[in-house]
Every structure is written in structure tokens, then in C-alpha cells.
């Protein structure tokens, strides 16, 4: 089953659930829109050569006899928007679009070269939320999401010696888990503040000729993981 098939099935199921629920409307049910921004930081990127036995670039020692890794792609601001529907006072679902454009790496290998590149990600997620009624205006919530992400790596450059290798894009199944609090400012305006963990899948560079080791040679490319923690501030109306 492809990623696009999974995402399509998830969205169709969400529409079906909303259609069943619409047969029993209550005053709490409503369409809403959400905008968000936030701060995202990566973990366990584990960027490695796809085939270290060929032409290696990410080395684990000065002699480049073992493979190494780049474990951090840094931090990024995130921006997103969503269309959602509240099924009842506790349950809501939404379809969300997000962009993260500021990740990157710059790491000196044990054998000398410094490798650097930029990483960006677009994603579409079907999110579900459960809002807890604790008897006050503040509403804690839990969230979960499933969807698709396209992760892109720019050309990877080498310093001392100078060189470059092609970047690339990769489509992935993505998922998230989160928690937060919501505070209604008015009947139609609510502020959200939350944390979430998002697994955006892999990112890959393309195979081709590269000069990352100081001389042109075929390079199988590199692969890594985009797993992030996020603090998010949003507004719903």
C-alpha cells in the first residue's frame, strides 16, 4: 500500500465519520479554521551514506574505514493551517497543512571535510483531538495525526576540500502525537498552546557523481530521518 493510498483512505474515513455524525447535530458541532506557528527541533537524524562500501562521504574515523553519522539537523520555525469540524463537545477532527523550512546540518567529519546542507518539509495530516472538560474555561486536549510528508534536502556542500553532491526529495508516511491546552477568548475564537512529537519519515539525497571527498566519483547518496519535537501556538475561529 502506497503512502498516498493510506492518506486518501484516512481522509475518506474521516469524511465518512463526519457524515454519520452530522445526522445527529448538536449546538456544539461546528466547522472551524486554525492557524499555527511554532518552534521545532530535531532528534536522532542518523544521516549516513546509503552505500558506505562505494564512495564514502560520512566517515566515522580519520582514515574513513568505518561509516559515521550526522545526528542533528537543527531547528526550524513551523507554519500551518487547518480546516476542522467539532463532532461533539469533546471530539474534533481536521485536515492540516504544515511547512518547516529551517532545518540544516554542518558537521566536520573525522577525516577533514565539513559537510553542510538544508532540510525542509511539507506535510498534510488528518488530525484527531479529544478535549477534556475539567469544569473551567481551560480545556486540556490530546491529539494524534496521520498523513504524508515530502522532505527535501538541498545540495550537500563540502568545505576543505571543496565539493558538492546532489540533494533530493522523498515522500513519506508521517504521524504525530501531542497534548496541549486551549483557552476560549470568545464564542468563536480560541487560543491553543501545545507540544507534539512528529515523525516525518526519511529524507534522501540523490545518487550521482559527487566531489565530497575532493575528487569526482560516483556517490550512492545519503539517507536520514526527520523526527522532531515541537511547541506550537495556534488560534482557532
Please describe what this structure looks like.
- By secondary structure, the protein is mainly β.
- The chain has one domain: Porin (Beta Barrel), CATH 2.40.160.20.
- Helix content is 8%, strand content 59%.
- It is built from 1 helix and 13 strands.
- The chain has one helix spanning 3-21; strands at 30-43, 48-49, 75-86, 91-108, 114-131, 139-153, 156-159, 163-165, 168-184, 190-204, 208-210, 217-219, 222-236.
- The strands form 2 sheets. It has an 8-stranded antiparallel β-barrel. A two-stranded antiparallel sheet has the order 11-12.
- 30% of the residues are buried.
- Residues 1-27 have low confidence and may be disordered.
Short summary:
Helices cover about 10% and strands about 60% of the residues.
List keywords for this structure.
13 strands; 8% helix; 8-stranded antiparallel barrel; mainly beta; two-stranded antiparallel sheet; Porin; disordered N terminus; 237 residues; 1 helix; elongated
Number of helices: 1
Which strand order do you get reading across the main beta sheet?
1-3-4-5-6-9-10-13
Percent of sequence in beta strands = over 45%
Shape: elongated
Element pattern in H and E: HEEEEEEEEEEEEE
Which CATH architecture would you pick?
Beta Barrel
Q: How many strands, which pairing sense, and closed or not: the largest β-sheet? A: 8 strands, antiparallel, barrel
Q: What order do the helices and strands come in, and which of them pair?
A:
Blueprint: H1 3-21, E1 30-43, E2 48-49, E3 75-86, E4 91-108, E5 114-131, E6 139-153, E7 156-159, E8 163-165, E9 168-184, E10 190-204, E11 208-210, E12 217-219, E13 222-236
Antiparallel strand pairs: 1-3, 1-13, 2-13, 3-4, 4-5, 5-6, 5-7, 6-9, 7-8, 9-10, 10-13, 11-12
Amino acid at each position: 500500500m502506497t503512502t498516498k493510498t493510506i492518506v486518501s483512505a484516512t481522509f475518506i474515513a474521516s469524511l465518512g465519520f463526519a457524515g454519520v455524525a452530522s445526522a445527529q447535530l448538536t449546538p456544539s458541532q461546528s466547522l472551524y479554521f486554525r492557524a499555527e506557528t511554532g518552534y521545532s527541533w530535531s532528534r536522532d537524524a542518523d544521516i549516513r551514506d546509503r552505500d558506505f562500501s562505494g564512495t564514502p562521504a560520512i566517515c566515522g574515523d580519520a582514515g574513513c574505514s568505518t561509516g559515521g553519522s550526522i545526528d542533528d539537523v537543527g531547528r526550524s520555525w513551523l507554519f500551518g493551517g487547518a480546516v476542522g469540524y467539532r463532532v461533539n463537545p469533546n471530539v474534533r477532527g481536521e485536515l492540516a497543512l504544515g511547512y518547516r523550512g529551517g532545518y540544516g546540518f554542518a558537521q566536520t567529519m573525522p577525516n577533514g571535510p565539513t559537510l553542510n546542507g538544508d532540510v525542509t518539509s511539507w506535510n498534510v495530516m488528518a488530525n484527531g483531538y479529544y478535549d477534556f472538560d475539567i469544569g473551567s474555561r481551560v480545556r486540556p486536549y490530546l491529539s494524534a495525526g496521520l498523513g504524508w510528508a515530502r522532505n527535501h534536502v538541498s545540495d550537500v556542500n563540502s568545505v576543505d576540500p571543496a565539493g558538492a553532491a546532489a540533494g533530493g526529495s522523498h515522500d513519506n508516511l508521517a504521524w504525530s502525537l501531542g497534548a496541549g491546552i486551549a483557552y476560549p477568548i470568545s464564542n468563536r475564537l480560541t487560543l491553543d498552546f501545545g507540544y507534539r512529537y512528529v515523525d516525518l519519515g526519511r529524507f534522501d539525497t540523490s545518487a550521482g557523481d559527487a566531489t565530497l571527498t575532493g575528487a569526482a566519483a560516483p556517490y550512492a547518496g545519503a539517507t536520514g530521518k526527520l523526527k522532531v519535537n515541537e511547541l506550537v501556538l495556534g488560534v482557532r475561529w
